[in-house]
Amino acid sequence: MPSFRSSPPPQPDGVRDYRLLLERWLKVCGVEESLALGIYGEAGGYPLAVVETTLPDPAKPAFYFSAGIHGDEPAPVEALIRWAEQNQGCLAAWNLTIFPCLNPWGLERNIRFDAEGRDLNRCYNSIKVPQIAAQVAVMKGRRFDVAASLHEDYDARGFYLYEIAGRHSSWGAAVRQRLSRLMKPDDRKSIDGHRANSGTIRRRIHPRIMPGHPEAFLLHFRHASRTLTFETPSELALGDRVRVQSAFLEIIPKFLKSKGGKRTKTR
Known about the structure:
The protein is an alpha/beta fold. The protein has one domain: Zn peptidases (Aminopeptidase), CATH 3.40.630.10. It contains 7 helices and 10 strands. The chain has helices at residues 18-31, 74-86, 104-109, 130-139, 172-179, 215-223, 238-258, and strands spanning 35-43, 46-53, 62-66, 95-99, 146-153, 160-164, 190-191, 194-195, 200-202, 227-233. The strands form 2 sheets. An 8-stranded mixed sheet has the order 1-2-4-3-5-10-6-9, with helices on both faces. It has a two-stranded antiparallel sheet with strand order 7-8. Helix 1 runs parallel beside helix 2 (74-86). The longest helix has 21 residues, at 238-258. It starts with 17 loop residues before the first helix and ends in a 9-residue tail after the last helix.
């Protein structure tokens, strides 16, 4: 792990400029009266933002989306805002909780970790990390039909999907079929030590499975009927990665409706 005693300078560009990212989200919220951008905390000198439905309707599907917990994974951050921009006028159809970038310090420096050298995606069973505690407080009492975390993987050979869905039917094959026209699925038989089937990893988890919990574990244990972690290969062209990540977001509401997804109470 690198030393963080002297912080490297930020190097924002078109997809790493956090201020520009928040401006884009504010514009979306300006068009979508059902949404508001709020600040729930601070980390590394950056405000932490959440975009959420102001008046949730229990009759509507509830979705959780997040990106940017690893600062060296910019495509999901860009894909999430592009998805919102391209769906302006439709976002009121859902109850949304969106964390546009969970690690802005790392994003602007192209570093996986936060300003303290932590992998935030191994801190979700600890209340000692202030920004995680603040995020957990925002989510308290909320339930989601689907929770999706967007990531990238240096070793990936194509897109792949971690799926935690309990007894619900798998979406893996349908996701693969829908997205394979844009990018091939990862063909490895084992990914991160887990058995994979044509780019799908379906897991059963329990609280003691690993010492540091990723975001997906918290979502599964407390908040979501179906938890998805979507990964694209960070070595491919940025535009291709963004396109596939955005397409993945597009199909989630459609899948919930068509695949018999279980509805849950929102808050």
